[in-house]
Amino acid sequence: MPSGTAEVQVRPGVEEDLKALTDLYNHYVRETPITFDTEPFTPEERRPWLLSHPEDGPHRLRVAAHADSQEILGYATSGPYRAKPAYSTSVETTVYVAPGAGGRGIGSLLYAALFDALAGEDLHRAYAGIAQPNEASARLHARFGFRHVGTYREVGRKFGRYWDVAWYEKPL
């Protein structure tokens, strides 16, 4: 277990996490280009997202919480890569770590738990899009066997400028 993670519990996300998960995500919506959502969400607006990640199947949600306080420190998901049926054995993965919780190995714990949970599923590839620049995310994905496969140039506009997204893939 990485240094500083002994007090962290990783578990499936549950309904009681919805407000904290929404608050965490909204930080990235308001403050960073890491997500291309541009308007914060209410917990009710995020409920369908939470419910689209059951405890089994290819689309999962793993939450890192402080073992004592249950404060949400981050989350990782796998979701549909694209909607068409032939893409069903591919997933898009993502990790969000709470502000102030970075550099403690939370992202690694989350991805380890997520990929362990996905091991028995009928999946062939995982994909991750990383808004540029984001060296920490690129390093995390490389540690988990992702390789860079290309970059979409100026694909999203947020905060009055265009952002590139580097795409990574990993065999499952």
UniProtKB/TrEMBL annotation:
InterPro entries: Acyl_CoA_acyltransferase, GNAT_dom. Keywords: Acyltransferase, Transferase. This is N-acetyltransferase family protein. Pfam families: Acetyltransf_4 (PF13420). PROSITE patterns: GNAT. Residues 8-172 form the N-acetyltransferase domain. It comes from the Bacteria.
